[in-house]
Amino acid sequence: MDGNGRWAKSRFLPRVAGHQRGVEALRVTIQTCIKRQIEFLTVFAFSSENWRRPAAEVSVLRQMFLAVLEDELEKIHEYGIRLKVIGDIEPFGERICELVQRGEALTAENHKLTLTIAANYGGRWDLLQAMNRAVEKNSAPVTVFTEELLAPHLAMSYAPEPDLFIRTGGEQRISNFLLWQLAYTELYFTTTLWPDFNTASLDEAILWYRQRERRFGRTSEQLESDQESKARSGRPKLA
Ligand code: IPE
Ligand code: MG
Questions:
Q1: CA 85, CA 73: separation in Å to the nearest integer?
Q2: Best probe residue, ligand 1, of 1, 2, 167 (max atoms within 8 Å of C-beta)
Q3: E strand segments, the chain
Q4: Is 177 in the pocket of ligand 1 (CB under 6 A)?
Q5: pLDDT at 7 over 90
Q6: What is the pLDDT of residues 134-190, one digit of tens each?
Q7: 48 touches ligand 1 (CB under 6 Å)
Q8: Range 147-152, long-range pairs (CB < 8 A, 24+ positions)
Q9: Given pLDDT bands bounded at 50, 70 and 90, which one contains residue 84?
Q10: Is residue 76 classed as helix, strand or coil in its secondary structure?
Q11: Quick one: angle between helices 55-78 and 15-35, nearest 10?
């Protein structure tokens, strides 16, 4: 979710106004995902590098995170959303940690949409914590890492790998987001600033995604013959 600051600056407003509009854009996106029956939405709210911002801005972002947790857990639950938070949230303080725990427990059985908020998250941090946990938790000493050994300890082990990655604000980088999980994800970049991102923007991204051909290392011809044989045997085609 990039571009809050630029959105505010172009209107001669303080950066915080951009962040506030950013929360609004997130609300709209969550509702659109539910309407479109998207089951998983993961948002990069605060990266492990964002601590480098001016202290006043870090403090505002922390306050906003706290306010959303304090005011909206019930609403999140009513919507049937399962809330998950990934990242090292301890530095945000006890109150936020408590509310995250409460929110995750309250919504654990919800199935409409899994909303994951990445806060003080970094893809490299995730890989390292997963490796350390694998070493710690494995009954036999770990001498070789395998995908099977590592995957259960990654922060998003409860979710399938993402189909679509959207970055707003014009930059074309991953910026240490879900490094492992994005291996086969379709990457979509838009110059739309996050506060301007709305239902039409998400629909446009989904439309773009649907035109991609997902080969997972195979050739187009293999996919085509696969689809033909599936059609012949009456099984459903690839989505
Ligand atoms: C994204 O908007 C919000 C967070 C990272 C919390 P930015 O604050 O990065 O906005 P720009 O890039 O300055 O426009
Ligand atoms: Mg930015």
A1: 13
A2: 2
A3: 40-47, 81-86, 113-121, 164-167, 186-189
A4: no
A5: yes
A6: 999 988 899 999 999 999 999 999 999 999 999 999 999 999 999 999 999 999 999
A7: no
A8: none
A9: very high
A10: helix
A11: 20
pLDDT at 200: 98
Residue 223: pLDDT band (50, 70, 90) is confident
Dihedral sign of CA atoms 139, 131, 165, 228 in order: negative
Distance (Å, whole) CA 133 – CA 100: 21
Which helix (H) or strand (E) element contains residue 220? Answer: helix 220-232
Could you tell me the CATH superfamily of domain 4-233? Answer: Decaprenyl diphosphate synthase-like (3.40.1180.10)
Closest residue by Cα to atom 1, ligand 1, is 2
Residue 33 three-state SS: helix
Three-point CA angle 229, 210, 230, nearest 5° = 10
Work out which ligand 1 atom sits closest to the CA atom of 45: 6
Catalytic residues: 2, 50
Cβ–Cβ under 8 Å, residues 202 and 37: no
* Ligand 1 pocket: which of 6, 43, 48 to mutate (most atoms within 8 A of CB): 6
C-alpha distances (whole Å) from 27 to each of 35, 72, 107 are 13, 11, 17
Residue 204's CB is within 10 A of a number of other CB atoms, namely 15
Angle at CA of residue 163, ends 161 and 166, nearest 5°: 115
